[in-house]
Every structure is written in C-alpha cells, then in structure tokens.
C-alpha cells in the first residue's frame, strides 16, 4: 500500500486535488481542507477553465485544470477528492488510481455494484487507498451516539428509524432545475441515491449491523422526472432489528436524524443528518430523558483528517470502497423491491 509516512514516523502534508469544483467542493470540502491537519490543496478541476482558475484563487490552490487527465497526471497531487456528477465517479476514480492517486470519492460511490467492484479492483491493483466521502460518521452527534451504543446502554436494538427530508427547490434556490443529475435516474439521481445512502451507511456505522433484507415504495409526485423523489425503505438487519428510512426531495422540514429503540431505552438525534455541526441527541434510560452535549465538529474536517491519516499510515478508512459497495447493494435491492413489490434478500 502506497503511504505518505516517512522513516521515523514523522507526519507530512498530503497534497490534494479536487475533481469537480462545484457547490459542495466550494462551500464544504475546500474550506474544510484549510482547517484540516496535514492537508493542503494544490490543484482543482472544472470543465470550464475560467471557473477552475477562480476556484483555485479563492481556495489557494496552485494549479487549475479543465481536463481531468491533467490533474491526475500532476506529480504533486497525492490524494484526489472526486465530486463530479454521480455517473462520472467510476470513470474518474479509475483514472485517478491508475496514476497512483489515493481517492476519496463522493457518495453515492457509483451508479451500480458493477462499477463499485471495478473501482475497488482498480485501487487494489494500483496499491492506493479508496474511500467514500460520507461525512456523517464524523458529525459530533453521531460520535456521541456511537459511544453510547457501544456501551450497550439500550440493550438489544429492536427498531431503528431515520428520516432525511429536504426541499430540493429550496435547498438549491434559483439554480434549481428539473433536468439535473439528482433528478435523473440514469445519472445516479433520486432520493435513495442522494439521501438514502447517508441513512443506510450511518445506521450501519452506528449500530454495527448490516442490512439483511429490504422492501421499498415510492410516491411519483413529480412526473416531470424519472427518479424517486419520495421513498420509504423498510429493512431487517443482521442483528434482528427492524428499520424504517423515510426520504424526500420535496418537503420543507424533517427531523433529519436517527432513532434507536432498544429493550432498555431509546437514543434519538435531530438534525444530525446535516452538513452543519449543530444537532441534538437525547436518550431515554431508567425512566428519564437526558440531553447529551454535542461538540460542534465540522464533519468535513473530520472526514479529511481521517482519510489523510489513512494515507500516512496505510490504515483502511472507516468508509472504505467495500462499505460503499455494501451501500450500493442495499440501494439496488430497494430499487428491485420498488419495481417488483416484494421484499428482497441481500
């Protein structure tokens, strides 16, 4: 495994490039890079050279490229964050790892399991690290929940519920349009791919149990687009727990959190499935509610520092390519259930 750890264990900076200098890169990832330890931004890509140069100036990158190939060939770039549209994730990841770059690829990892498997195989053959950019495990609220669940305070988990409900027109503002990749199924769009994978991944991270079977339904409330805009997934987990995941692109408000119900109590978060650090976590134990202190951590900083550490040490990321593949298997099963009307075993 290619590492950035010099003899003697000294920590060194990891030089990053960004493929896809869009909104998330501009408002979340690049600013977090400036705060993260041992990381520096050296190169950015946008199909529009003028936009790439403006992004580079804003965030302090030394070079700007309009061709993905040129960024991947840059000898100073060691790690690449891929935030291109979903249908390009596999192509860009495979290209980057072929040039010996470690890759942190935005979720969803790819369009299907076959693409995920090709990405994993390409990274393994190149001897580089592949991770999927789920920042939710690094949210302060989920760190609290992980600690409490690891102490088994709830006993056996019976039920888990999560909702991730947003208004895409409100969220995107004047830039909203129906003919975008998030609302086009063949481009990796839909509420399950965009929002649901966060719930699927974060529940598995917190509870430590994978999905065994799923069923899914959707409400075609926007007939102008072919992707699911409102969906509900029910799941059974390997530990026996039952789960419900509720997703929407068209609702103004949601709790946007995760709830665990066990034989000894409950653990509930609100607004934890979020790009911002503010959230609440409450537990119900021994007949009383307790609100837990949540450190307002920037989840993107945590995500970057963890992946950088993996590059330095050769460790496997918390959210590896294999984890992204597991999420895609659940997504494909949910799609299959949506079409067939039957529960799908994984």
Chain-wise SSE layout:
Elements: E1 14-19, H1 23-35, E2 39-45, H2 49-59, E3 63-65, H3 68-73, E4 79-82, H4 89-98, E5 102-106, H5 113-126, E6 130-133, H6 140-150, E7 157-165, H7 168-172, H8 191-207, E8 211-218, E9 230-237, E10 242-248, E11 258-262, E12 265-270, E13 280-285, E14 288-292, H9 299-313, H10 321-340, E15 344-345
Task: Provide a descriptive summary of the structure in words.
The protein is α/β, with parallel strands linked by helices and 346 residues long. It folds into two domains: 14-133 and 302-315, NAD(P)-binding Rossmann-like Domain (Rossmann fold), CATH 3.40.50; 140-296 and 329-345, 2-Layer Sandwich (Dihydrodipicolinate Reductase, domain 2), CATH 3.30.360.10. It contains ten helices and 15 strands. The strands form two sheets. A nine-stranded mixed β-sheet has the order 14-13-12-11-7-10-9-8-15. A hairpin with a 2-residue loop joins strand 13 (280-285) and strand 14. The mean pLDDT is 93.
Strand content: 15-25%
What is the string of SSEs from the N terminus onward? EHEHEHEHEHEHEHHEEEEEEEHHE
Q: What's the structural domain tally? A: 2
Using only C-alpha atoms, the radius of gyration works out to 20 Å
- How is the largest sheet built, in terms of strand order? 14-13-12-11-7-10-9-8-15
Number of helices: 10
Number of strands: 15
CATH homology superfamily name of the largest domain:
Dihydrodipicolinate Reductase, domain 2
Multimerization status: single chain
CATH architecture of the largest domain: 2-Layer Sandwich
Helix content: 25-40%
Q: Give the N-terminus to C-terminus distance in angstroms.
A: 31 Å
Shape field? globular
